[in-house]
């Protein structure tokens, strides 16, 4: 199976492996069952990916009920695009989440479903028993109900639904390989558009959004904000059950992990904190609605990426796309530049002397307006120009002075 065709699960393996250390037998068993079910599904994913392609259907939705089974072909039809609402709230939440994600990509980014060709959107609810995960398998979306102790029904989180479906968008665009930096970018793209779908549906601005991923998946028994925080990677949770959120927010803390299942394929759910933080910072500096300029820049950059794109490559692409879309030296481009620099990535070809990382004037809650960005740019360039003029004048003055010749210097030493 190719690296970009692995199962994309919302609960990272490091959390489930940590739960295997719990003193609570039920917690350990639920974690083990979830890991085993996911491992079995990876084999099925490999077979399906080799024989089944995307099905066109203008983004039509269908939701099936697995009735706690694990064999998807035996699932019952629960709700279709033209059918009535179900009496099962999990079915309705999945159905609505598929629509909201589809409508976001169509209305905001002019994309016709995940493959841009009207791919059908199929969802499966009540998968397995006490299954602590939700995932995109390359063709459909599968939801577990959670164990009821730590995790709740995964259909209850819109950003989780949008996160998983965005893996489909990534697969049909850049096809980012699911390991190491390209895999972390893959996960970050899903977090970015997962939160944008939620923010768009709630009409939230950059300032009012919580920037959390999966805040609804935990039961009240769990002391945790969410699975991840894009605004503050590494601070989503810190408890005895899950340990400390391991996401870094800067390249100096990049986690070098094994490219294996236990190592999260090089830390794809962990190192995604770095580009996540960069997107948040860019959006905060631009201000307004994050699905506007920031979302468009990231989407166009995703489409321009390749399977092995790394952080540096993607950062450079976002900088170029910001210029193409909004102009060189625009507030949008400066916000992108500053954001990447703050997480330890310098845009290629941009001299450090005019880095602008902290030159943007900030309005109130953190949004940088176009006038402020251009004013900051003009101010820094003006200061650099003044320094160059002073240096030039000093050199000219030195050249204008008559320097003593060797003969004159010799005469002076002889006292003549």
UniProtKB/TrEMBL annotation:
<dbReference type="InterPro" id="IPR013856">
    <property type="entry name" value="Peptidase_M4_domain"/>
</dbReference>
<keyword id="KW-0378">Hydrolase</keyword>
<comment type="similarity">
    <text>Belongs to the peptidase M4 family.</text>
</comment>
<feature type="domain" description="Peptidase M4">
    <location>
        <begin position="96"/>
        <end position="171"/>
    </location>
</feature>
<keyword id="KW-0482">Metalloprotease</keyword>
<dbReference type="GO" id="GO:0008237">
    <property type="term" value="F:metallopeptidase activity"/>
</dbReference>
<keyword id="KW-0862">Zinc</keyword>
<keyword id="KW-0964">Secreted</keyword>
<dbReference type="InterPro" id="IPR001570">
    <property type="entry name" value="Peptidase_M4_C_domain"/>
</dbReference>
<dbReference type="Pfam" id="PF02868">
    <property type="entry name" value="Peptidase_M4_C"/>
</dbReference>
<feature type="domain" description="Peptidase M4 C-terminal">
    <location>
        <begin position="174"/>
        <end position="345"/>
    </location>
</feature>
<dbReference type="InterPro" id="IPR052759">
    <property type="entry name" value="Metalloprotease_M4"/>
</dbReference>
<keyword id="KW-0645">Protease</keyword>
<dbReference type="InterPro" id="IPR023612">
    <property type="entry name" value="Peptidase_M4"/>
</dbReference>
<dbReference type="InterPro" id="IPR027268">
    <property type="entry name" value="Peptidase_M4/M1_CTD_sf"/>
</dbReference>
<protein>
    <recommendedName>
        <fullName>Neutral metalloproteinase</fullName>
        <ecNumber>3.4.24.-</ecNumber>
    </recommendedName>
</protein>
<dbReference type="Pfam" id="PF01447">
    <property type="entry name" value="Peptidase_M4"/>
</dbReference>
<keyword id="KW-0479">Metal-binding</keyword>
<keyword id="KW-0175">Coiled coil</keyword>
<feature type="coiled-coil region">
    <location>
        <begin position="374"/>
        <end position="401"/>
    </location>
</feature>
<comment type="function">
    <text>Extracellular zinc metalloprotease.</text>
</comment>
């Amino acid at each position: 199976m190719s690296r970009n065709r692995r199962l994309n699960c919302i609960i990272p393996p490091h959390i489930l492996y940590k739960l295997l250390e719990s003193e609570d037998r039920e917690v350990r068993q639920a974690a083990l069952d979830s890991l085993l079910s996911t491992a079995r599904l990876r084999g099925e994913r490999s077979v399906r990916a080799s024989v089944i392609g995307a099905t066109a259907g203008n983004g039509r939705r269908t939701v099936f009920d697995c009735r706690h089974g694990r064999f998807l072909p035996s699932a019952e039809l629960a709700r279709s695009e033209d059918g009535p609402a179900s009496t099962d709230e999990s079915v309705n939440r999945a159905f609505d989440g598929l629509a909201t994600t589809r409508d976001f990509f169509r209305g905001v980014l002019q994309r016709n479903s995940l493959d841009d060709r009207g791919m059908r959107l199929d969802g499966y609810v009540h998968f397995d028993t006490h299954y602590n995960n939700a995932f995109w398998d390359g063709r459909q979306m599968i939801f577990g109900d959670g164990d009821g102790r730590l995790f709740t029904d995964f259909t209850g989180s819109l950003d989780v639904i949008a996160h998983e479906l965005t893996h489909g968008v990534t697969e049909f665009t850049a096809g980012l390989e699911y390991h190491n930096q390209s895999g972390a970018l893959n996960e970050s793209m899903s977090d970015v558009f997962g939160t944008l779908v939620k923010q768009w549906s709630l009409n939230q601005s950059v300032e009012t959004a919580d920037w959390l991923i999966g805040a609804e998946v935990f039961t009240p028994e769990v002391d945790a904000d969410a699975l991840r925080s894009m605004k503050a990677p590494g601070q989503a949770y810190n408890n005895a059950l899950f340990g400390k959120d391991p996401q870094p927010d800067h390249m100096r803390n990049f986690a070098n992990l094994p490219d294996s299942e236990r190592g999260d394929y090089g830390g794809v759910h962990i190192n995604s904190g770095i580009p996540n933080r960069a997107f948040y910072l860019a959006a905060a500096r631009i201000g307004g609605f994050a699905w506007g300029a920031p979302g468009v820049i990231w989407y166009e950059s995703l489409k321009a990426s390749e399977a092995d794109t790394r952080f540096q490559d993607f950062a450079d692409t976002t900088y170029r796309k910001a210029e193409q879309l909004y102009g060189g030296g625009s507030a949008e481009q400066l916000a992108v530049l500053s954001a990447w620099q703050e997480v330890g990535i310098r845009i290629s070809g941009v001299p450090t002397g005019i880095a602008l990382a902290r030159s943007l004037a900030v309005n109130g809650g953190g949004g940088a307006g176009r006038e402020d960005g251009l004013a900051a740019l003009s101010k820094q360039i003006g200061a650099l120009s003044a320094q160059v003029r002073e240096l030039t004048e000093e050199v000219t003055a030195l050249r204008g002075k008559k320097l003593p010749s060797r003969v004159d210097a010799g005469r002076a030493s002889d006292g003549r």
